[in-house]
Specification:
The chain has 28 helices and no strands. The protein is an all-alpha fold.
Amino acid sequence: MPALLPIIFLSFVLSCSSGTKEKIPTADILEQISIIADTKPDSALVAIKKIRHNDLKGRKCIAKYSLVYSKVLDKNYIDVTSDSLIAPAQQYYGRKRSGKERSETYYYSARIQENIGNYSRAMEFLHKAEESLPDEIRELHGLIYSAKARIYHNSVEYESAASNYREAAKAYETLNNQNRYWINKLREADCHIKCGHLEETERIITSIEPVLDYLPETTINKYYQVKITYLKKTGSNEIDSIVNQYISRIRNKQIIDWIMIAQIMVSKGDADSALEALEMHRSHNSASAVYHYYLGKACEMKEDWSNSTKAYKEYIKSHSSIGAGILSQDTKFVEEREMHQQMHEKEKSRRIILSLTIAVALLGLSLASVCIANIRKRLRIEYLRKENLQNQLDGLMLEREELATLEQRNREGRKIISDRLRIIDQFVMSDACNDSIFEAKASEKLKAIISDRAEFVRQNRLIFNQSASRFINHLTEKGLTEIEIDHCCLYAIGMNGKMVTTFTNAKRHYHIGSDVRKKLGLSTHDTNISIYIRNLYQQMHS
């Protein structure tokens, strides 16, 4: 009965909202809405939308409305991407030294920044929320730690993510919230796999199994994801039976990790099952970079070269944009500024991401043309063999000899492309198999590539000369010098002006950029030069 009181209270108040005079203060209504938002977020949303703005009297009431509305939207999974709604709460509660409302304001401010993708700012808000939070408010402790863990995880900081998921689980354990406790423990286990801490992972998996039947299906789904990933990591023969159990046990097929299923089928050489899993994923979700990668693998296994090439091209495009987004973040969080050892690990991750972004971008410049040429040659040879058209076959063989001569002249560029592809495959295997060994090997190779920056610029230009001749010819016709074209090639792979200056150590970068603008017919106000060059490359390379 006590749990129903807030709902009954609201129903009474809102039913009287059309009366001549409201008897209950709006502040009390807002507090009740805040309470029911935790258990009945949809009802809370309906209730708060019925509050009239004219009834919000005083800065305190406006601040409370701002905070509760932000909370209700978050509980309903409505992602807010502007801080205009919560601004009054920030101004009012930000002046207090501590308290629940201050902590909640900072927490939901962090959620907005997380929605935007500004992880650095989000972490600053979370740190403030934690500092001002009373110890007895365990629910909010759990939310804060979970949010911190999620940001660390998205920033490839798996050790820190695991630690915060563990703290979140402790907070929910004190509240006897079994579902949230176990979902955070499973997320911790997932991070342990990525860090190579398999004993910790096994301990969590074993401990949850006796209570698995009493947990929601979403939590059971997460259990199977973690267990299958763990079994892949250990090379267990049990994985096939667990995969079948996973698919049959989860009734809501929409939440199943079909990408993971597809990866397992590809590793087994079962292209048809992989394609079925990918189709199930695509029917419920948008196409991600990983989806395109395994689609390309499955089509390649079936010798469907046309669709394989299309899938790989989409993978490169998607993965490049993801890498650029992560790279643009200032992920030196507040806590990391206070802890030197974490700064070292953060910088390591940034270097890996930078290297990966550069490698993927370079690969995208040339993979399509190389694959298409090879695929066309293989298909034509097969066709001519079946049709026994000897005269055409002779002509093809002559063409093949010419291609071999061309490959000999361009051997250096092809080797660079091949090396980049192997590195990308190692990163993909690291992500798919949660194997830090693959990541470490790829990282070392990428560090070697960018260690000699002058050589990297030269290689970058060489690849553009081979795969994007229209783009290079256009720049040459506009009168750009060799150095200016080199800078444009760096813009084309995703670098901005600051990154180019840092990477090339060019003291004259500003003057170079100004000269490029003049030769391309751009004024200083037309557009960002890096964006213009990338768009120009895409137009001429499509």
